[in-house]
């Protein structure tokens, strides 16, 4: 009789062989033990994801783990569309939201390598509307309840580095910012609409007050969307074309788009009602065409495409003969750019033990974080539930795809622990 561990290993190997025939694999395939991972321990991921699906917390999920350049684990479970009972398949397309940001950042780094862009330059060199920014100052008197609001000229201009590391003073507004007057101004200007053209969006956002002096604090905001507009201006092309020519096509990411072709609409992974509230999350509708090439949140794509992107980063900027960045540029981008004088603030999403680089959260201390990992690992995720990380020390990368935003941080933490406990060499 086979032991539970033997059965678990068989289950993992079955996933790899049935879900990933060699010709269809996004990366070369290896058995886990060939790259220092444990099949038995990786099988714990299967069980955890199934638990979330059985509790109806997520409709379905795809997990991919690659080490030493080989795809060693893939698990596909649950539904692409639970309302229709349609099972999830490996080619399902997910709303990437903020996992668009690293691709925009890489496009900007490529322009830097070409000598067309420097991260110390003011944004106004390319977008003149950002030259004379003001900072909003809002105060509240708890005794009287009186509120006051005024603006002051910013002490310095926003730089390209500020956009890359989220220190510009731009915000997303609620729920990250408590500046209620600025929130009202965002709402009145329609900043949160998805019906913009990127050039017009940049001009509208430049009219909004900043929430702090550039270079003094970290706050998550529309920085990468504005960076995308800078990339357009420098490259002289729309952002979708820049992405296609500089990143997506060279890496073979053929299912990653701002505008999904109608032939791919039937592959979009759908959210489902939350089991605790009954509310179905409202997400971007990729069945409708868009002109808003939002570099901060606008892409949809597959797990297989994205792990090719992250493997390129593990490899120091190259994959299958396509050189996207030089290795020193990747190291530079994946270094902490938040010096001690920058206030991370209470809304620093990366958490203790992390700083922020040029497009990613970057680990600076192994013991400060509650997440397992290595000094130098870097990661980010998307609102819709997607996540990735890269661990250069372990030559490992991980991609997780689901469409459930409410508990996304808990899923990422649990999967981190499960992946790292599987490393035996």
Question: Layout of helices and strands, plus pairs?
Answer:
Layout: H1 4-19, H2 39-54, E1 60-67, E2 70-81, E3 86-87, E4 94-95, H3 101-113, E5 134-140, E6 147-153, H4 160-165, H5 180-189, H6 198-206, H7 223-235, H8 239-248, E7 300-301, H9 303-314, E8 318-319, E9 322-323, H10 327-333, E10 354-356, E11 361-363, E12 378-381, E13 387-391, E14 396-401, H11 408-420
Antiparallel strand pairs: 1-2, 1-14, 2-3, 4-7, 5-6, 8-9, 10-11, 11-12, 12-13, 13-14
Helix pairs in contact: 1-2, 3-7, 3-8, 6-7
How many distinct folded domains? 2
Sheet with the most strands? 8 strands, antiparallel
Shape-level CATH architecture of the largest domain: 3-Layer(aba) Sandwich
Helical stretch tally: 11
What's the total count of β strands? 14
> What is the strand arrangement across the widest sheet?
3-2-1-14-13-12-11-10
What name does the CATH topology of the largest domain carry?
Beta-lactamase
Name of the CATH class of the largest domain: Alpha Beta
Give the C-alpha Rg: 22 Å
Backbone structural class: alpha+beta
Distance between the termini: 29 Å
Looking at this structure, what is the CATH superfamily of the largest domain?
DD-peptidase/beta-lactamase superfamily
Low-pLDDT parts are 1-23
Overall pLDDT: 93
Helix content: 25-40%
Query: In percent, how much strand structure appears in the residues?
Result: 15-25%
Shape: globular
Helix and strand succession? HHEEEEHEEHHHHHEHEEHEEEEEH
